[in-house]
Amino acid sequence: MRGRDWKEKSSRYLRYIYLRLVRVHDTPHRVAAGFSLGVFLGVFPTFGIAIPLSYLLATLFRVNRGAAIVGSLIMNPVTTPLFWSASAAVGGFLFREDAEKILRLWKEGERLWSLTRGTLIYLAGNTIVSLVVSAVSYGAAYVAVKKYRERKASESR
């Protein structure tokens, strides 16, 4: 029963995020660009300041601030292991290093503020993962906003 509750809560949460995104009063491009910016900052290691940084940069780049904040919420306890592993794997592939070794070093005390080889490999991989996830999120958000608005416009006729 607990698994069912978790699935139901997750589904409601994702629907809430979706509705917050598609109902924003702005152009589809600005909403998608804001969301994409937030996703990039959410995946990239910003050490807990992704939300204020998303707001600040969205203001600076003149994209939707609300969508940027929503996008920054992509990094959470469920997705963190996925993004960390993907970052280590991509960095390891680029530099021909073992991804598990990079993650182990990072988890055992080598942190991002100590610029060692493992950290640089991880950051290289994370930058690519952040850019790819951000680009995909732009496209998904743009399409979602357009389709939602087209459906609402056809329903009101």
How would you portray this structure in words?
The chain is mainly alpha-helical. It has one domain. The protein is built from seven helices and no strands. Helix 2 runs antiparallel to helix 3 (50-61), helix 2 runs antiparallel to helix 7 (117-155) and helix 6 crosses helix 7. The longest helix is centred in the C-terminal third of the chain and has 39 residues, at 117-155. The termini are far apart. The relative contact order is 0.15.
How many strand segments?
A: 0
Number of helices: 7
**Quick one: biggest sheet?**
none
- The overall average pLDDT, rounded, is 87
Strand content: under 5%
**Computed CA radius of gyration, to the nearest angstrom:** 18 Å
Which secondary structure elements does this structure contain, and how are they paired or packed?
Elements: H1 2-22, H2 28-43, H3 50-61, H4 65-72, H5 80-95, H6 99-107, H7 117-155
Helix pairs in contact: 2-3, 2-4, 2-7, 3-4, 5-6, 5-7, 6-7
